[in-house]
C-alpha cells in the first residue's frame, strides 16, 4: 500500500536546533568527563557565557523555569501576599502557591499587556511583601514605575522574565531590573536547553543563597543550611545551551524578519490588531500575538479553529486567565470586575507561529487564511 506523506503542520513555535554533528563533540566530552550533573564544567561555562551575552552580573542555572521561580521566592524569603498578573502562563502563580503565598491579581495595561502600575498601589495591604510582574511576550514592563512603588512600600520585585531572553531596556538588559529576574529555557523559548531556566542575580551573596537552595541546601559534604530542592541543570542541557548561543543572533534576526512580514501583510486586515513593536528597545520577537477585534468578520475562536483546520496550530496565549482556574477563582482579586482589560484581551488574542525555520511561504499562507475570512 502506498503511503502518502502527511500534510506538514505549523506550530506556534519550534525549538532552535543547531546541527546535530556539532553537538556530538559536547556529548563525547561529557562521556569522557563522566560528570553528568552537579555543576559540571559545561554548567559553569554556560553560566559565565550567559552573563557575558546578556550583560548581567550573575546567573544560576536551573532544571526548568518553574523551579527557578519557586526558588527565587524562597531566596528572598517572600511570604504573605504577592501582587501579580492574571495574564501569564500558570507557572507564574503556581510558584506562589507552592511557597504558601497568596497571589493578588491586578489588571493589565491595554497597550503593553503587562501588569498595570496604576493598579498595583491600590492592591497593597499590610500582608504584601513583593510584586511579581511578567515581561509579557518579551515586552519590558514599566520597570521604573514598578520600582518606585516597591521602594515606597518596602517591597521586593521578582520579574518573571520567561519571555525576555536578550531583551534590552534603555541600553542595558531588562533582566537587571528588580531584585531577581527568572528566565525559562524551555524548548518553546527563543533560547532553549531542552528544559531549563535561570535566576539572574545582582550580587554574589544572593547567587550563593540561590545555589544552595537549588542543591538541597548543601554548602559542603556535611553542611546543609536551608531546606533546598534539586533544581540543578544537567551537563547535557548546559552543553546544548552553549551550542545554541552560537546561533542565537542569527535566530533573532530571522524572527525579526518574520515579525516584519506579518506586520506588513496584516496591516490592511480590518479587525486584526498587531501589538506595537518594540520601537527603540532591543526585542527578541519571542511571540507574534494578534488581537481579533469585533470588526473582524468572525470570532476569535472561529479564526483559531479555521487555522487549526488548515494544520496551523496557533495558540490563544493567554486564555483562560490564570485567575479563572479552580485553584485561583475564589480569590477576591480574581473577580471578573477586577480584571476587565485582561479578560477582554484574553478573549481576543491569538499567537501566530514564529520561529527561525518558518518560511515566507508559510507566513503568506497563514496571512491568506486570516485575510480571507468571509462573514458568518
Automatic annotation (TrEMBL):
The modification N6-(pyridoxal phosphate)lysine is found at residue 189. GO terms for molecular function: pyridoxal phosphate binding; transaminase activity. The active site is at 189 (proton acceptor). Keywords: Pyridoxal phosphate. One of its GO terms (biological process) is polysaccharide biosynthetic process. Pfam families: DegT_DnrJ_EryC1 (PF01041). Belongs to the DegT/DnrJ/EryC1 family. This is dTDP-4-amino-4,6-dideoxygalactose transaminase.
Amino acid at each position: 500500500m502506498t503511503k502518502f506523506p502527511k500534510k506538514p503542520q505549523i506550530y506556534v513555535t519550534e525549538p532552535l536546533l543547531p546541527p546535530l554533528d556539532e553537538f556530538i563533540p559536547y556529548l563525547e566530552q561529557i562521556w569522557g568527563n563522566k560528570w553528568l550533573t552537579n555543576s559540571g564544567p559545561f554548567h559553569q561555562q554556560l553560566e559565565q557565557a550567559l552573563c557575558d551575552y546578556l550583560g548581567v552580573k550573575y546567573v544560576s542555572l536551573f532544571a526548568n523555569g518553574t523551579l527557578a521561580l519557586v526558588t527565587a521566592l524562597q531566596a528572598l524569603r517572600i511570604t504573605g501576599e504577592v501582587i501579580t498578573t492574571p495574564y501569564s502562563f500558570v507557572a507564574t502563580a503556581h510558584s506562589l502557591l507552592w511557597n504558601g503565598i497568596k497571589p493578588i491579581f491586578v489588571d493589565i495595561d491595554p497597550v503593553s499587556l503587562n501588569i498595570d502600575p496604576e493598579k498595583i498601589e491600590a492592591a497593597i495591604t499590610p500582608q504584601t511583601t513583593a510584586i511579581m510582574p511578567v515581561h509579557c511576550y518579551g515586552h519590558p514592563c514599566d520597570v521604573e514605575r514598578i520600582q518606585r512603588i516597591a521602594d515606597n512600600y518596602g517591597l521586593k520585585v521578582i520579574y518573571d522574565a520567561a519571555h525576555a531572553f536578550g531583551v534590552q531596556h534603555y541600553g542595558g538588559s531588562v533582566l537587571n531590573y528588580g531584585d531577581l529576574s527568572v528566565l525559562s529555557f524551555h524548548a518553546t523559548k527563543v533560547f532553549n536547553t531542552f528544559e531549563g531556566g535561570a535566576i539572574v542575580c545582582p550580587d554574589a551573596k544572593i547567587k550563593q543563597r540561590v545555589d544552595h537552595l537549588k542543591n538541597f541546601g548543601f554548602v559542603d559534604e556535611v553542611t546543609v543550611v536551608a531546606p533546598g530542592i534539586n533544581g540543578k541543570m544537567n551537563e547535557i542541557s548546559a552543553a546544548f545551551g552553549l551550542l545554541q548561543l552560537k546561533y542565537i543572533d542569527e535566530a533573532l534576526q530571522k524572527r525579526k524578519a518574520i515579525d516584519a512580514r506579518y506586520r506588513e501583510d496584516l496591516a490592511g486586515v480590518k479587525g486584526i490588531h498587531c501589538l506595537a513593536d518594540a520601537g527603540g528597545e532591543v526585542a527578541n520577537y519571542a511571540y507574534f500575538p494578534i488581537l481579533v477585534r469585533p470588526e473582524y468578520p468572525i470570532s476569535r475562536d472561529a479564526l483559531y479553529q479555521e487555522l487549526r483546520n488548515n494544520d496551523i496550530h496557533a495558540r490563544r496565549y493567554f486564555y483562560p486567565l490564570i485567575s479563572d482556574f479552580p485553584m485561583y477563582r475564589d480569590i477576591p482579586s480574581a473577580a471578573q470586575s477586577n480584571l476587565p482589560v485582561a479578560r477582554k484581551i484574553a478573549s481576543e488574542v491569538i499567537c501566530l507561529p514564529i520561529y527561525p525555520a518558518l518560511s515566507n511561504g508559510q507566513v503568506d499562507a497563514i496571512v491568506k487564511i486570516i485575510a480571507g475570512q468571509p462573514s458568518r
